[in-house]
Amino acid sequence: MAENVPSGLLEACLVLGVSSERLKDIHLLQGKGKESLVEAEVLQVHAPPFVTKESSSNGTQQDLAPAFSRTQRRRSFKKKRDRPLSTISDSGQTNEPVVAASDDLSVPQNIDLIALLQLCFPDGLRITNESREDSYHFLVFTDVFGNQTHGVVAQYCKPVHFHQDNGIHQNGQQLNKLQRLYTTYSICVISKYPYYNALRDCLSGFLLQLKTSRLFDFEEQVKEFSAKLALVPIPPPGPLHVVFNLRPFQIELPSRLDVDRPVMDLDLHLPFLCFKPKQILQIISSILMEQRVVFLSTDWAKLTLVSECFMVFIHPLRWQHTFVPVLSRQMLDFIMAPTAFLMGCHTSHFDEVAEELDELVLIDIDQGTVSSSSSNRLELPDVPLTARECFIFRAKGLQLHYDLDVCHAASRTDINELRAHRRQWQRKVNSVILNITMELIVNIFSEVCDFLNYGHRVFNSEEFLRSREMTDHTFYKKVLDTHIFHSFLRDRLNQKNDAFTRMQLNIRSETRRMRTMTESPRRPTMEVISRKYLRPENGLNSRLGMSMPNLADHRLLTVPVRQTSMGTMTFQSGSWSPSRPIKTFKLPEFPPPLSYQYVQGYYNDLIRELSKAISAASPDDSALLARYYYLRGLVNSVAGKRVDALADFQSLYKTDMDIFPAELLNALVESLPAEERRTAERRPDLKRLISRVKRENERDRARPVDGGSVKRFELPKKHLHMEDFVQRVQESGIVRDQGTIQRLFEALTVGQQKQVDPETFCFFYNYWKETEAAAQDVDLPAVVLEHLETDECVYKLSSSVKTSYGVGKIAMTQRRLFLLTEGRPGYVEITKFRDIEDVKISSAPFLLLRIPALKIKTSHRKETFEANLKSECDLWHLMIKEMWAGRKMADNHKDPQFMEQALTNTLLMDAVVGCLQSQKAIFAATKLAYFDKKKLEVPMMVPKTTSDTLKHKINPSLDQTSPQAVDVLLYTPGQLGVSELDGGGNPKLWCALSDGKVLVFDAASWSMQHNSVQVGKSRLNCMLAVNQQQLWIGSKDSFIYIINSRSVSCNKQLTEHRGEVTGLALEERTDKFSQTVAYSCSEDSSVIVWDVSTLQVKRQFRVSCDRLQSIQIHNGMLWCCGRDCLLEVRRNGTVHRKVSLPDHLLSSPRGFSSFLLFNESQELWAGLAEAGELCVWHCRDLSKPFIRIQLKDCAGVVCMIKVKNQIWVGCRGRSADGKTRGKIYVLNKDRYTVEKELMAHEDSVQTLCSAEDRYMLSGAAQADGKIGIWKVE
């Protein structure tokens, strides 16, 4: 098998010490008074394979993996042939040599023997007169590609006896005068995974065995010990641990907590026992800033364990530089490296290290201190205040002492029971610490995501820094330039769904979720200003705010302004993952590990045990089933049962795709002999699997090796044409909408060649940012704040002017205009934008001059407001008219995004006038008056019926540069007793956009609840909630994707369809004991019946029609809608009845588009894709003439749904100008009449869904891309 086929627990096991030849020389030197520090040698190397199958009868060698560990490339290592070494055992008997004569060693290629010798004896190998206790320490090896392997070293002493005449005692001859000395040997177990505790336990039990066994069996015993470890499979990420017996201990291998995390077999509370929370934060800060860090301790074991804990604490950020937690005496020159590193050495070298170099961060684990090599204090910026205070608050509540937790419990008499209880306590403590440290990282970097442009992969670092507190700038400036942060940015831009993302979503407030639904320029809200005014000393992060959409009543969405302080505030608790109960799987007892037949028998026993576990597991516990399938596939692959292994890995599609071993599967497919490949390809499921592996390999080759580039935003240095200008503005984060940017381009290029020069762009960008910065310093009196909503922002402030309400400054928010009076500060409301009746410019006489004045007439006051704005008059006139028009359209269309877009337009006008500063500036700004012009082109008023029925509109494409089609909508009701961590109990709206993107909205507030979930790359056609935890989605790529509706993650797929999946249906259960059955159909007219609990195919059949488009279950029968007919099908797939396309529509190439069935009236309603009519048949007698219902101005029916006594029909409508419009017709199903005709969208209605018969939701095609929420009467 290939090199990357599974790696088990063991990579290699080595024995190191001093040879017998050297022992004699050492004794001679000792007799001369020389120091007994000697050079260590490699005495034994054991690495897989330990057994191989004998040649078959035809002389060919079977290519079977002999163990879970990789078959590694090797290189020769020349070893001197040892002379026999005489020893005396504790009983006084003479035994064979400790290190027998051996041939040259074969060493795995990835092991650096020179470094290993030094690291296994970091303080040197000595021959002593006294015995020492066994000791353990831990190593980390990193190759040039950054891949790590890990070592656990056990050091133990052995006595060596010499004759008085310098001869080594041997052959059982008893002499009177012997000199007893002690030498140290090291056994080093190297693993690809950091199982520090588990391997230490393994070595502890093995050393106990060595001390009670005969010494001439030493090499064979080490080999057997190594071979047993090579038989241990590594559990996949998730809730299943592997347990095995290695007497006297029962060893438990914990799985990775998550796919994106490494194995964690550590006691994470160790750093909290060694350091105070403040020092822990200093160390984390040093690592994040990529300083040169040196850990110091008198205990070699602590160096690696504590260092590795800090690597866990900074997750998901990853240390990118040299990581050598244990440096031997000979390696101290490594500290001279000029680049960032993290190393560890003995405390005795403290002075030597500190004197040699400046600017080292020295961390004394034993003393719990953090200092600099140049001073006793560490002069590095602190972690930001909010994150720091939250971490210290959480750390104070940690329960770190096991003895205190068990002092009330009885003493345990069984060692394995005691160890299991200790592990359970450690898991609990680790889980709490992981949440605390993850919360720290989220608090530091959470808002980085708000300054990323995902489309162009740009991070606006300057804008991010502006949003930070001034006291935190030094910290962020250092961190933002590091490799570790660059890698973190790349993961964010790749939208990696890791622990950071999940906790970020869990702790995100409702206000923050609402802000993601708007595209307003960033300005501080009244809530932020209030806090700033009330508590200027408050250290909370005053991030720039964004306004929120007006969902029926904005007051429902505001947050009360309240006084807070760091000393009394309560921190919101978050978690990166719901806690799951841990299951264990016990491996069979190890066989004689050096016999091929016994090893194969062990594999067969292991497969049987896993098969039993699969049979016993509940079908609902798919996570556990997936781990069993993974392990059985792993065992089958190393046992040579490749086809069975493929079948097991194929099962992961239906249980948990997150742990799918792509590399292993690729190697497995490539290693298939011709006969086995033919066997596999005769099975349809395995044939599809092999084909998919090939496709994925081709895609992987096309992907960037580094995961994609990350750019920092930079101002342009050359002239920008339209395309380049659009990209640069989007990168800047000013605005994303492509149409708005194109109008901005026209404004900046008025009267000149159609390109923007770098100076103009720079002036515009700087003016925009200066305006934002000025808004941060708006100091509003408390009397003013009382009149404004907490989510309002001051976007524009005039100079002091004379008005009809007094002298002061005119202020503009997203809702109103008001006057900030001078002298005695006060608030005078001018008008809300929705109350404006007219805005015009006039001139006010002053002596011999005519001063330009702005007049605003409102519906709430008889008198007209007048302001002598002078040179500002034209700009304010344009801005107020645009805001007025935007407000009117937002109110009429129930779409708050119109107001947001109008606000963006007005601020762009302000920036354009400010940067151009010429006579043409006002004319240029008129190019951005989009809504003011639009109200002249199209009627502002929406038909009354539409306006009365429409509740609200939301735009799911706000993070896109252009609208995306809303292909499918699905509403799922709320669930009682479900925590926020498990997805929350509120109802959800699931929205499928173009190219396989699924968004989730909280249907209680219509706010974005989660980041998008990518479900394949193709168009999604249908969605079905099969139960409270599973959401099925049919895709154009022929797959059915299964989303866990609580975790909002997609980790299962059904791959049995061969064509585009077009429909899904759920059969109602006849009683609580019956199985839940789902149906799916594809365009090739195939229907599959599924057992929902097991995801197994129950039946499969084909129906005779042209492009099967949708299905429904009615009275125990399956109804199918094809282009050319409607079919009623029995459970076995035979056709019961058929309704053909009406004669007058036979020429329509697309035929039927949708249909509905009703139990109460026994009617069949059908819509036609290219005709503005509905056809209604009586189900009891389909031969009766059908009823035709004409839909005025309808070009084709797209979808239909029944709500109460109404039929809602989504259509492609025709407008007077010939453009496609989305229309909804509401019909009375008893009278067959159209009750309402709704002008729903600016493009075709693609989908309809009902929210508990109270609301109807409609999704539009790409030209509109919005979701309409309609009242149902």
Automatic annotation (TrEMBL):
Keywords: Cytoplasm, Guanine-nucleotide releasing factor, Phosphoprotein, Repeat, WD repeat. One of its GO terms (cellular component) is cytoplasmic vesicle. SMART domains: dDENN, DENN, WD40. Its main location: cytoplasm. Residues 51-95 are annotated as: Disordered. InterPro entries: cDENN_dom (IPR001194), dDENN_dom (IPR005112), DENN_C (IPR043153), DENN_Domain_GEFs (IPR051696), TPR_DENND3 (IPR057977), Tripartite_DENN (IPR037516), WD40/YVTN_repeat-like_dom_sf (IPR015943), WD40_repeat_CS (IPR019775). Residues 53-63, 86-95 have a biased composition (Polar residues). Residues 70-499 form the UDENN domain. GO terms for biological process: regulation of Rab protein signal transduction. Forms oligomers. Interacts with 6 of the 7 known isoforms of 14-3-3 proteins. This is DENN domain-containing protein 3.
